[in-house]
Specification:
Helix content is about 35%, strand content about 30%. With about 400 residues, the chain is α+β, with helices and mostly antiparallel strands. Strands 5, 6, 12, 13, 14, 15, 16, 17 and 20 form a nine-stranded mixed β-sheet that branches. Strands 1, 2, 8, 9, 10, 11, 18 and 19 form an eight-stranded mixed β-sheet that branches. Flavin-adenine dinucleotide (FAD) binds next to helix 1, strand 2, strand 3, strand 12 and helix 8.
Amino acid sequence: MNTDILIVGGGPAGLSFARALAPSGLRITLLERQGTDTLSEPAYDGREIALTHRSIRSLRELGAWQRIGDEHKSPLRSARVLNGGSPLALTFDTGDRPEGELGVLVPNQQIRRALYASIEGQDDLTILSGVSVATARTGNAGAEVTLTDGTVLKSRLLVAADSRFSSLREQLGIGVEINRLGRAMLVCRVDHEREHDHVATESFDVPHTIAMLPLNGRTSSAVITLPQDEAERLAEASDEALSESITAMYRRRLGTMRVAGSRHVYPLATTFSRRFVVPGGALIGDAAVGMHPVTAHGFNLGLQSAVTLASEIRGALRRGEDWAGDAPLQSYEKTHRLASRPIYTATNMIVRLYSDHRPPAQLARHAAIRLGRRLPFLNGAVRSMLLQA
Ligand SMILES: Cc1cc2nc3c(=O)[nH]c(=O)nc-3n(C[C@H](O)[C@H](O)[C@H](O)COP(=O)(O)OP(=O)(O)OC[C@H]3O[C@@H](n4cnc5c(N)ncnc54)[C@H](O)[C@@H]3O)c2cc1C
């Protein structure tokens, strides 16, 4: 074996997993198709990640949270759901819980930078960048991977962290449920006249939905969901035209808005892998579960998957058992499936209800908000999901 564990993909999930295994005495190789500069200084990608308290704890344990400057951390006090121009809103906050805030928004770029800094120089870790996988196969004896430069690597365990459109997943023969939604998200930062009071909003309208994520100062991240071609067209608009469109779509709730950064378009597709493990291989992060961003759980679940798999492996090592064998892999599969399937299903139901623009669906949305306001346990359930996931 050249290495004990080969991780393919140096996104947040791959980086967290590599860090969560240190020190374990296992030789780890992390493979990323982008260059080292992109890993150490990733470009701003428009994603503002709403981190739950659990994720913050995990990032702190991984030594990454401390490396993110306070100026990049924006508290999220509450979240409101709005249906078009209706004055009714469904509000989620921490209630009487001690946390004080629902979570903290941090740019994905800063999380990736901090995670990379936390693994740099890690003992027994080799990082191969600027190279990709050509072919891969796994079995009870381990994995064999041929890279695009012809190098052959052998490992006891192969871990795919290569995004929701994972090519490795396919090579390992793992099927996947894919929902291509034909819609895309346009994200960009905007400055605005009024204070947002650190309240995030998701406003469902026709034909778009628009979310505002509160960043420090009078700045928010605007997240607009539209049919794919319309999102691409809007992304090409001048700063003035885009600012006007966003101000109008958001119904001037925060006054006049001005585009304050680069625009990024993400086509929307959700994915759920039929299995998370095979003999000699495992999927983590978006490669296992690719969530719709509307409930802001993709990163959080991906981090959870990395920490769970690492802890299964460490537990087996401690007990002197086969750390790459069936038992730790199956236990990871079971735990992560239980953690992710309900949130994935609930999120997809919300997406279906809120992307249907026919009048009955609009009425159903209105009724859902009206009913939700009268059901304190709903607020409690969503609050627990937001605070504990
Ligand atoms: C607009 C937007 C907003 C979001 N907001 C939130 C939020 O608020 N909260 C939240 O929890 N989540 C959020 N998410 C989801 C979150 O960004 C993802 O879940 C997370 O980035 C997934 O991390 P990952 O490491 O699994 O995959 P990725 O970030 O996709 O990284 C995969 C890595 O693998 C590399 N790679 C791919 N193929 C290969 C290969 N063949 N060989 C080598 N390397 C390869 C890629 O270059 C990349 O570096 C959001 C997503 C979007 C699009």
